[in-house]
Each structure stands twice: as C-alpha cells, then as structure tokens.
Specification:
219 residues; alpha/beta; 5-stranded parallel β-sheet; two-stranded antiparallel sheet; 7 strands; 14% strand
C-alpha cells in the first residue's frame, strides 16, 4: 500500500491554521481521498496536559509561593515528547494505511515559539531542533502568512479564554520568524500562502499547493 501524504499547516495564532485544516479535509474528502486531521498539542496524554498549561488551568508552584506557567525549556521538552507520542500513536499508523494526515501545527511551531520565548539565541534554537531530531518530516508544510494586525483582530474575535502565548509583542516577533522559517528547515518542502485574503482565496491556494505535491495540475 502507498503511504498517505503528511501535511502540516503552520502560522501564528490567528493565521487560520485550524480553519484551513478543516477546509482542506473537506476538499480532499470530497474527492474520495481518505483523510485524517489532527493537531498539536495532540489529544494524547501529554498533549492534553500541555493544553491545560496553555490555558492556565495547570500551573506550577515557585519557591516563593507563587504560581506560574512552566518555563520555556519545560514546554519545549513537553512539546517534543508529545510530538513523538503523537507520531507513534496516531500519525504514522494512518500514513501506513494510505491515509493523508493533516496536522494543525507541528515542530515548526516548537522552533518558532520555544526559541523566541527562550531568548532566540542560536544555541537555544539548536537545542530545540535536537529535541525534535527524530520527528518525521512532513511531505508538505503550508505556512499561512498573516500581518500582525489581522491576526490580532482574529484572536480578539474568537471565543475562548486567552492563552499564555496570546501576547501581541510575541505574536509580532513570531510573524517575522515564520516569514523566515524556511531557513531552519532547509530540507523541508515549505509553501508560504497569504492568509490575509478571503477564506475562499486562501482555501484555493492551499488546495493548489497540495495538488502540486500530489503531482496534479492546479485548479
């Protein structure tokens, strides 16, 4: 059996990764292709714990009696552990069954978020890269590029509690980092798509990128 295609969709918070993961699944499924969608943090045991940390529901005590979110290095280790578990439990089995797997975020997010929150030094980036050394590479990574002001408005418009990375200055730095993300993954196939236009325009551009990866003509 031919393995399925492994596709990651990336971008800052508010770029539309979750929305376009769902739309891409709908488009591929309409063509009769078997598709499985997933996300990171995953829905596995480690991913569930990370989501509780991101939302502020799970915090750690400090020496002086205060409570706070875990530090960037702890988060980097947890994200890497979740990713390897995610691959073994969910992603690889589906790919081996010939199913196309779409993941809303992958290790590109770890390099982006943990390297910046860790200070952005080269040794910090190298350490996060080393943690993810054995993470299987996607066949295609789609990066949705969205200006900070648009991403910020989308974050404000959506329902739900703010998470620990919902900081405007951090998100502006992440926007720049994602524009240059190719430099950190020179062997990956990465396609940048303008995610600031209409939903239909972005959806069409994503589908054409996937069609190209499958060796099919553009729509």
């Amino acid at each position: 059996m031919i393995e399925g295609l492994f596709i990651a969709i990336e971008g800052v918070d508010g770029a539309g990764t979750t929305t376009h993961t769902k739309l891409l699944k709908r488009g591929l499924s309409a063509r009769g292709l078997p598709v499985h969608t997933t996300r990171e943090p995953s829905d596995g045991p480690i991913g569930t714990m990370i989501r509780q940390m991101l939302s502020g529901r799970l915090i750690v005590p400090t020496m002086h009696g205060g409570m706070k979110a875990p530090g960037w290095s702890t988060m980097a280790l947890l994200f890497a552990a979740d990713r390897l578990d995610h691959l073994e439990a969910e992603i690889v089995p589906n790919l081996m069954d010939g199913v196309t797997v779409l993941t809303d975020r992958y290790d590109h997010s770890s390099i982006a978020y943990q390297s910046i929150t860790g200070g952005g030094a080269q040794d910090t980036i190298a350490w996060v890269e080393a943690l993810n050394k054995y993470a299987r590479r996607p066949d295609l990574t789609i990066v949705l590029d969205v200006p900070p002001d648009i991403a910020r408005q989308r974050r404000m418009d959506r329902s739900g509690k703010r998470e620990i990375f919902d900081d405007d200055q951090l998100q502006e730095r992440l926007t720049k980092f994602y524009l240059e993300i190719d430099a950190y993954f020179p062997n990956d196939t990465i396609v940048h798509i303008d995610g600031s236009g209409s939903l239909e325009e972005t959806e069409r551009a994503i589908m054409n990128a996937v069609r190209e990866a499958r060796g099919e003509p553009a729509l």
